[in-house]
Write a structure and sequence with these properties.
Distance between the termini of chain B: 16 Å
CATH architecture of chain B: Up-down Bundle
Number of domains of chain A: 1
Helix content of chain A: 10-25%
CATH topology of chain B: Na+/H+ antiporter like fold
Strand content of chain B: under 5%
Number of helices of chain B: 15
Structural class of chain B: mainly alpha
Oligomer: heterodimer
Order of helices and strands of chain A: EHEEHE
Distance between the termini of chain A: 32 Å
Largest interface: A-B, 15 and 19 residues
Shape of chain A: elongated
Strand order of the largest sheet of chain A: 2-3-1-4
Order of helices and strands of chain B: HHHHHHHHHHHHHHH
Largest sheet of chain B: none
Helix content of chain B: over 70%
Amino acid sequence: MLTYPFKLVTIIAEPVLEPRITQELRRLGATGFTVVEGRGEGSRALHAAEIPGINVRIETIVPPDVADRIVEYIAQHYFTDYEVIAYLSDVSVVRGDKYRKPFNQGGN
Amino acid sequence: MLDILKANLLSPIPLAFALGIFARLVKSEFSLPKDIYSALSIYLLFALGLKGGVELAHASFDAIVAPAGVTLLLGCITPLTAYGVMRYVGRFNTSDSAGMAAHYGSVSAVTFIAAQQYMQRVGAPAEGYMPTLLTLLESPGIHIALFIGAVQRNRQAASAGADAADHGSIKEVLHEVLTGRTMILLVGGLVVGYFMGEPGWQAVSPFFDSGFKGALMLFLLEMGVVAGGRLGDLKKVGPFLLGFGMLVPLLHGALGVILGEWAGLSPGGAAVLGTMAASASYIAAPPAVRLTLPDANPTYSLTAALAITFPFNILAGIPIYYYLAQRLAA
């Protein structure tokens, strides 16, 4: 089966950032995303909630240029003060168009 | 005085709380499932709102004006004193001080409920409209504290030539605080309770009233587990915050009691108002602070609010505020 190379962006963050980050993903060119909640602790072990140790993992599949944009944005805005990590992996998808925003609608 | 403290320690709420701490200290695997914990807090807040709304319908407007006024006043004073003590006595930076002020300027609804129950038990029930005052005290403190923090931060950001933060805007914080679960359930419950009145309350009280004290006990058990889990952080925050977490509540509590009696509340009511002023928020304030003052260290404020002030109020503070209110009334 014919597949297309894309990037999977994975962001693991404090739950308080979820609404912001997911909103920004759309703006940066992602066509969709998935959020799962889990437990864990980062290098700083900050517990900014009454129930400690809850993290969210936000995943989105995007073209390489969008992936770079997202990771750069996250690094710039959140790495200093928040417990956040972001990384990229290579994935192959069947329907390439599904993960690419039509050009003239970009930015929305 | 010692007798009052002892009697309090042997009542249901402190005992359940202590059991939770114990469970955590012996590293038991026990803790309430997160969803049940949320469900219990929803039940407690909504029941509190409903009952408060029904009672509010009985209260005359004139009776509430003065207590509501001093409550708002408290909401403006407590963040300022907390900020001042943190910044100028503890020498913390502006963000950490403002973050702490947001926690101590706001209230803990569970501490409020515990105080209400205590007054009922000792035969000096607080006025029925107290939950209305609780909602008034919930948000001003957070906004004042975050405002101080934001002003200081923008000053620093401007001098550093950084672009103004596009997040942490006033709009975002307002939304965070005003649509949080406490505000929706408590204010919403008050409105619903007010309109459904006594007949409506009769219909739902088998669920919302009969189970209330039991649910509260279960909730406090879990609060003990949560607070116990943070005791380890006490070493990180140092002796200043340990003192802060007990002395600032005493100061705010005494202020609340004095203003409450001055506004014409009964000793029980004044003690509950004092407890409100003395308590520190750990539900509404943390996310608001995290989003607005990201460089404030949440370990300081949450450890102080949850591991020091909350246990202090539950175990000793509430009877002390009541004792004070009695002495003042006499």
